[in-house]
Amino acid sequence: MSAVAASDTPTRAPQWLRVYRHLARAYGSMVFIWFWAIALPVVAIVLFIVSRNVAVEVSGVSFTFHGALWFPFSLAIIVATTYLPIHVANGMTRRSFSGAALAANVTVGVGSALMATAALLVEERIYDALGWLHADTFAGNVLGVFHDGVLTYFVGLAFLFTAGQLSGSLVGVVYYRYGGW
Questions:
Q1: Residue 2: pLDDT over 70
Q2: Mean pLDDT of all residues in the chain?
Q3: 70 confidence band (pLDDT: 50, 70, 90)
Q4: pLDDT > 90? residue 171
Q5: What's the CA dihedral at 106, 111, 116, 120 to 10 degrees?
Q6: CA dihedral 155, 160, 161, 163 (to 10 degrees)
Q7: pTM of the predicted model, to two decimals?
Q8: DSSP codes joined into one string, the chain
Q9: How far apart are CA 14 and CA 141, in angstroms?
Q10: What is the average per-residue pLDDT within 35-40?
C-alpha cells in the first residue's frame, strides 16, 4: 500500500479566481480591443478631417469617455444576465461568481482609466507639437484637460469607469433575479 503525499495532489485556484481570469479576459478583449482599438483611430481620423477646416480647440479623446462608460456598462449587464446562470448551472456558487465579477469590473474600470489617461497624454503632446490648445470648455471657461493634475484626472476616471461597470453588473443581477419590470 502506498500513501500519496500531500504535495502530489494538484492544487487548483479558488473558484472565484478561475472565473475572474475568464471574466477579465472576456471584458478585456471586448473593452480594450473592440472599444479602445476602434475608438482611438476613429477620433484621430475625425480630428485630422476637422483640423483641415477649422481650428481645433478642444480635446478629441475626452469625448470618447461617454462611450468608454456606456459600452462596458452594457457589457456588464450582458455578462451578469448570461454568464451567471451558466456558471450556477455548472455548480458554481453565486457568491463566487459575484466576487469574480466584482474583481473583473474593478480591473476593467481601472484599466480603462489607465488607457484613457495615456491616450490623453499622447494627445496632449501631439496638440503641443501642432500648436493646438489641449483643453475642455466647461461653462464658457477654457481649462487645460489636466488642470488639476494627471493623477487626479486618472483617479476620477477610475472611479467613473469602475462605477459604470459595477452599476451594469447590478442592473444585470437585478434583471436576472426579478426579470423585466
A1: no
A2: 84
A3: very high
A4: yes
A5: 130
A6: 120
A7: 0.82
A8: --PPPGGGSPP---HHHHHHHHHHHHHHIIIIIIIIHHHHHHHHHHHHHHHTTS---S-SGGGGHHHHHHHHHHHHHHHHHHHHHHHHHTT--HHHHHHHHHHHHHHHHHHHHHHHHHHHHHHHHHHHHHT---EEEETTEEEETTTT-HHHHHHHHHHHHHHHHHHHHHHHHHHHHH---
A9: 51
A10: 87
Residue for grid cell 481570469? 21
For 105-142, the pLDDT digits (tens) are 999 999 999 999 999 999 888 888 888 877 766 556 66
Find out whether 111 and 32 touch, Cβ atoms under 8 Å: yes
Q: Locate cell 478585456: which residue?
A: 28
Residue showing cell 453588473: 169
| Cα→Cα distances 32→42, 48, 75, 115, 155, Å | 15, 23, 12, 8, 19
